Amino acid sequence: MSKVHGYTVRVDWSVCYGCEKCVTACPTDVFIMMTDTTGKAVADPIREADCILCLVCEIVCPVKAIYIERKGGSEDTLQSLLQGTDEN
Q1: What is the pLDDT of residues 17-36, one digit of tens each?
Q2: CA torsion angle for 13, 16, 20, 24 (degrees, to 10)?
Q3: Are 11 and 4 in contact (CB under 8 A)?
Q4: Which residues contact 26 (CB under 8 A, 6 or more apart)?
Q5: Count: domains in the chain
Q6: By residue range, what is the domain housing residue 18?
Q7: From start to end of 32-88, where are the E strands?
Q8: 65 neighbors 5 (Cβ within 8 angstroms)
């Protein structure tokens, strides 16, 4: 059985230790916390279809357990979120 869950949003359960930072950071509630077969708390990208490719979860993960499959615009989306909008 694979320890990596998700397709676009991938979480490696062998690395994830359940800190919940991705759950808190995700603006579209992609993740839920669950218990794996060993009883360890892990993040599961159960609503990955809602992912907007902002990459925030990947950035906040302290153990690099999350990988987002890049598509066009991912870096632009990230930069926009980091910089905000400058409306005058």
Answers
A1: 999 999 999 999 999 999 98
A2: -80
A3: yes
A4: 56, 57
A5: 1
A6: 4-83
A7: 32-35, 41-44, 66-68
A8: no
